[in-house]
Write a structure and sequence with these properties.
Rna Polymerase Sigma Factor, Chain: A; Arc Repressor Mutant, subunit A; 9 helices; elongated; 2 domains; mainly alpha; about 75% helix
Length: about 210
Amino acid sequence: MHPTDEVLVARYVESADEAAFRTLVERHQERVFGYLRGMVRDRDVANDLFQETFLRVISALNRQRGSYTRQDRFLGWVLRIARNAALDHLRSRKKWQDIGPDDAEDETAWWDRLPDEGPAADAVFEMGEQIDTLKACIDQLPPEQREVVLLRHESDLTFREIAELTGCSINTALGRMRYALINLRRMMQKSAIATEYATHESTQTSETAAS
């Protein structure tokens, strides 16, 4: 049976067990990197931020202080550090604006008014055959919507955890997700139409050239 995150953290903090820490990194690297890659939309930058995130993790654990406690979910704690690193990067390039309290209230209000026409929570992601198109569409989402999609589907956080991590209400997190899914559905449909049109034009051109 594999040791839990808490056991591995304890081994690293109490005994400087590097193997335990390496196991933690390997266990969660895909989720953390996937989140960072989606946030900054640049693989090289995401790699740098990934390294920075775990350097901050090491520093916090070695000091035995910071926001982590044995009761916390380790991945959620690491993602908070990764989020801070990503936001620092984005703010330095003025590509991110925080949502203020008034905006959050407005978003919760319009969430209740959204038409029930959107896909179910995982419906859009079942279009996995078009994964590259889906990733491109996710990149086009507004930052707050893109983040909740990444935290839910790349990092597998619950909406309660997403709300705690991003400092918003659960309703607001759900609202961002629902609106993101509606936007993704529309973008994917437009992409499918464009692809069908391009295929049709290519076929027509080939037939004309052959005649």
